[in-house]
Structure formats: C-alpha cells, structure tokens
Amino acid sequence: MARAGITVDRLVAAAAELADESGFENVTLSALARRFGVKDASLYSHVRNLHDLRTRLALRAGGELIDRIAAAVAGRAGRDALTAFAGAYRSYALEHPGRYAATQIRVDQSLIAGSPALRRTAEITYGMLRAYGLTEPDLTDAVRLLRSTFHGYCVLESAGGFGADRDVTASWDKGVQALHRALTHWPRETDDA
User: Residue 1's pLDDT band (boundaries 50, 70, 90)?
Assistant: First the structure.
C-alpha cells in the first residue's frame, strides 16, 4: 500500500530539489526515503527502481527547460530567436544544475516519443533552425552543434572552468553571435558534393 502523502509527482519533485542541492549523481531512493521519513521499500510502490526515478526526473527537467525556451523564443526568428533560446538554455542550466544534468542522460526512444515535452523540444528547436533555411540532414547537424556548444559552455561555466579575466557572459554573447553567423552561412549538404 502506498504511503499517504507520497505520490509519483511529489517523489519526482523531491528528486529534482535533491538534484539541484546535491547533484544528480546523489539522487538515490535511500536519500529520498530519508526526506520523506520512510523506508526505501515504501518508494517502490511509486517507481520501479532508481533508473525509473531518474528517467522521470529527466523527462520533468526536459519539460521545464523547453517551457522556458518556448516562452523566450515566442514570436522571434533568426538571431533574436537564437539569442533568446541560448539565454533560456543557459539560465536553466546554471539555476538548476542537478535537473540540467538529468536532461543529459540517455532516455529510451519510446519514452521520448510518448513525451509531449520532448516532442515539443524538437519542434521548437527545429522550427528555430528552419528560419535559417536548413533542411535535413543539415538540421540534425545544426542541432548537434548547438547542443554541444551550449552544453559544454554551461558545464564549464558551472564548474568555474573559465579562469581568464574576460566576463563569461560577454564570451557567451560572442559565441552565440558566432553560431548565428555559422547558421546563416551553413555549408549545405549539397555543397559537399
């Protein structure tokens, strides 16, 4: 029987808080059981195992991230949309480091297909990039460039990995400007032939 007051939503919300406080790698069923004042076994009526909990956290955090991005890019296109997208991405990653780390785990493709938030992520991201005139396979290549650039920068910034005197936000802004230029002058798949 499920313990009164514990629901899957409350459990995942507590996991999100714990991830931000202590790091995604420290989200365990034991740690959450202590938060709720119950034994570990009590949580198995809500989630199958730790992997299930972390997957649910990843889906929740991915939904939060795309909601923030969607609000930022609404009504924008081109450079303005890219700048807003990048800013929303960076602010979420820095404000919610544990949740952001959860968005980086590999999630089963069938769960992604069933997640409205993650489908929305693809729609918004690809929609923004189509404004640059990109089509497949260039869209996928551009998504990979943006994700790896944004992710790498945010992880390094969060870890204090930039030691030069240059303001990190100024460097971020310059990087986003460079990405805009790269997208504007994208080497099309047909250019390679």
Answer: very low
Token code pair at residue 92: 């979420």
Smallest CA-to-CA distance from 176 within 82, 77, 90 is with 82
H/E element, 112 = helix 109-113
What is the percent of the chain with per-residue pLDDT over 90, rounded to a whole number?
A: 85
In angstroms, rounded to a whole number, what is the distance separating the alpha carbons of residues 160 and 30? 30
CA 138 – CA 190 distance, rounded (Å)? 10
Query: What does the DSSP assignment read for 8-63?
Result: HHHHHHHHHHHHHHH-GGG--HHHHHHHHTS-GGGGGGT-SSHHHHHHHHHHHHHH
Model pTM score: 0.91
| Residue in 27, 91, 15, 100 with CA at minimum distance from that of residue 62 | 100
Predicted confidence at residue 111, as pLDDT, reads: 72
Contact call for residues 101 and 23 (beta carbons, < 8 A): yes
